[in-house]
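In the current project phase, work has continued on tokenised descriptions of protein folds. One protein thus recorded appears below exactly as we store it.

——
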Amino acid sequence: MALTRAPLLRVLRNVALGLVNRIPAIKRGITLKLSGLSRAKMATLPAPSQPGVRKQCNKNEFKIVA
């Protein structure tokens, strides 16, 4: 869609993007999807429960737990 060469398709693309730019809800949704912020709740890591997983020490150092 971004690299259309036909003049008519470019006009249609520009009109569609212009309309999308005027609707705040759609604009916000596209912005969140492109930035990855809409998936922020899925970005949490599971707690380390397996051997060999790094755990944080009291001295702000990391060590490998066997």
